[in-house]
Design a protein that fits this description.
heterodimer; A: alpha/beta; 9 helices; 4 strands; 10% strand; B: 338 residues; alpha/beta
Chain lengths: 216, 338
Amino acid sequence: MKVALLCESAAEEEGLSILAQGLLGAPVDLHRPSFNSRGGWTGLRHAVAPVCKALHYSHPEVNGLIIVGDSDDSPLHAPEHGRPGAEERACRICDLERLIAEASRGLRPRQQSSPLRVAIGIAVPAIEAWWLFGRDPHVGEATWQQSRPGAGFELRRNLKKQLYGPLLVTSQVIHDAAVREAQRLVRDGKLLALQRHFPVGFGALADSLQAWRSGD
Amino acid sequence: MIKSVRFENYRVLRDAVLSLSPLTLIVGPNGSGKSTALQAISGFRPLLNQSLGQVGSVGYVPRPDSKVSVSIEWTTPHDGYRTFIEWRDAQPPMSLNAGPHGRELDGELLQALAAELNGIRLFALDAHYIGAAVDLRPSDQLESNGYRLAGVLDILHSQEPDRWVALNAELARWIPEFDQILLETPGQGQKALVLRTKQGRHRIPAASLSQGTLLALALLTLGHIPNPPTVLCLEEPDRGLHPRLLRDVYDALVRLSSPDSEQQGRRPVQVVATTHSPYFLDLFRDHPEDVVIAEKDGLFARFQRLTDRPDVQEIIGSAPLGEVWYTGVLGGVPVRER
């Protein structure tokens, strides 16, 4: 399956593609050259529409787009966000869904290809929490929800320190850690447990990719 | 390592403190004292040759209790020590060292501080000079504008085979169309820079290389020289480079300043860089404590560490740091009178 990835840091891309392969149960042929966002959530969300449109019109060979961002301090997604009057504008899953819907509106039909599939994942509170799953018993969406308001920056920093060692690291170190931990999660059969501990942000990604797998 | 530099009545820096971390990025409008600060730090000793009239702030009038000074405060392993130069009216400038709590400085310590000072280097790279052929010397050093790169590379090639291999590998990662640095001999005792293309093994002389490629090669070389500076001051390392290459530049600076991050087992190089690029600033999003905002205040300028601003994390939120800076909410942007 030919897949494009859009995430907050290009250094995470290979690790995420390993997770995607694990969830799809099939090799992933990653679209190259990769799409880069300017970094951070805002950088990522600015890239969503142009990337969706470019894949739609210019890359019929790409079957699906996977978008993964960090939740940072935003609220966790809840099913009621979809109900009128209960929308949560700060919810990043809702935000991405809205951006994708807006980008897809009014597009001419895709030539010689089925519609582009899009899967969304939100790492709570940051991608390092996924990579530390199975090593740190405290990572998980529930732990994050119980954390003190305003402590987000320090908590995310601690995750980085735990994973990388020094605070200031090169993208090579980030890339290597992502690949190493993604391989461990897939090899040790941890994806289902990861989904149980991160039911919203990783669950959304897993559900979409499993739907791709079954051809839905 | 330098903890901070205090400027009093020094050119555009009338009363300014520049706090430094292992890797510091200074952003600010033109004329906000960024280059003045880097030149003072890297040319600390030569400042002694400057007169009060040359270094004093605009409108500075010497009074009995006033002075012009540049003072470096050291940190690990010289916590609490200061090295400073003072200019007072009708007196030649004086260079002094001071210890914490009036502690005396012994000869060994003075030598260590002198070595730190002598090891500070400033680079404002210029592609024209980087690509120039050079007369060979038994030992060679990259000049401030990047001149003599061919000589430095020749020494690296002949005396440091491991570093040479690592440099070529990194070049191929940064600029994948090239796979090898070659050195040609245009005349007796001379060397000139050539890059070999990966496809077809074509030899491209420096004069035909893009400015960005030459600037990237000089930056890369700084990360591989055997005797790196104690403090590396870099003017706009982003200049001439594609925004996507800036992550590699950032990584090279991290590798220099935090060698532990990749278990290199060598002494860290303190890095102080300036930029006008929002894209380069984006890369410091997770390390706002490493960013210093240079601000113009009338005729004078001052520095403020980004994290010394209240509520800065909330202001930045999830936005790219460069984008937030560009809006002006963090300061450090040109101010136009309406």
